[in-house]
Amino acid sequence: MDTLFSIFTFLFGAVVGSFLNVVIFRLPNQDESIVFPASHCPKCSTPLHWYENIPILSFLVLRGRCRTCSEKISSQYPLVELSMGLLSMALFRHFDLSLDFLYYFIFFAALLVIIFIDIRHQIIPDVISLPGILIGFGGSFFISTISWQQSALGILIGGGILYAIALIYYLLTKRDGMGGGDIKLLAMIGAFLGWQSLLYVVFASSLLGSIIGLGAMLKQQKGGRTRIPFGPFLSIAAFSWILFQQPILNLWQLYLNLILPAG
User: Fold this and answer.
1) Is the dihedral of CA 151, 155, 160, 162 positive or negative?
2) pLDDT by residue (tens digit) across 207-232?
3) How many CB atoms lie within 10 A of CB 114?
């Protein structure tokens, strides 16, 4: 039965991922609606039939090309669908079919949209992060993983940490090193995960961002002027905290045992 539900949650996630693609491509353009018109080829604007819009499968059958104009279809479509399907299945394995599953499914979907929009446009839309803060806090009254007090502190501390880092960086360099979107995103993460997650989220995202940033600096040859979006690293750290929280805490305890003398 678990296998059957795992398949169901994967398919459900992939279908939602198909809609998330629409959000990712259309939301940054204020002149476009995420509802109308219906799905169509971005090159020739031909409306898609239902059998051309099956998550992942249609892309493979069509070999990544539009059936009408034969232009290439972005590989982002199956990537987002596959990612949301796998994340949905992982959440089911973690929470079963519960209110906690729905709560974090909404959170993961929002983070996935943020990752791809931030990579493409280097912006984090307020229309996602600000309602996300409210949903995260409101949901904390009904789920089992965090309390509303932890969520409220997560919002205050999450937004405050990145604001302080951004302010210090500006005072030292006279350059903006972090956008307001990242600050609101960490406040949203704090709302869903609670204040106790923030040390790990900031550390893990900074470590991953530093590694990727060094690679980007070497490739772009721009030195300190190299800019990479930070939202994806915050989002990936949030994913890992939910799915691997216990191993993370175990590693932290092992580290403390190694550096602190036995009492």
Assistant:
1) positive
2) 998 888 887 777 766 655 567 889 99
3) 25
Q: Are 173 and 216 found together in one domain? A: yes
Measured from the Cβ of residue 262, the count of other Cβ atoms closer than 10 Å reads 4
Within 8 A by CB and 6+ apart from 6, the residues are 89, 92, 93
Helix (H, G, I), strand (E, B) or coil at 89: helix
pLDDT attached to residue 196: 94
Q: Is there a domain that residue 240 lies in?
A: yes
CA 74 – CA 41 distance, rounded (Å): 10
With beta carbons less than 8 A apart as the criterion, state whether 184 and 133 touch. Answer: yes
Name the DSSP letter for residue 34: S
> Residue written as tokens 């691997």?
244
Q: Yes or no: say if 103 and 143 are a contact pair by the CB < 8 Å rule.
A: yes
* Parent domain of 21: 1-97
Among residues 39, 67, 97, the one where a domain terminates is: 97
Say yes or no: 179 and 86 in one domain.
no
Same domain for 121 and 68, yes or no, is no
Which pTM was predicted?
0.89
47: DSSP letter: B
Same domain, 48 and 63: yes
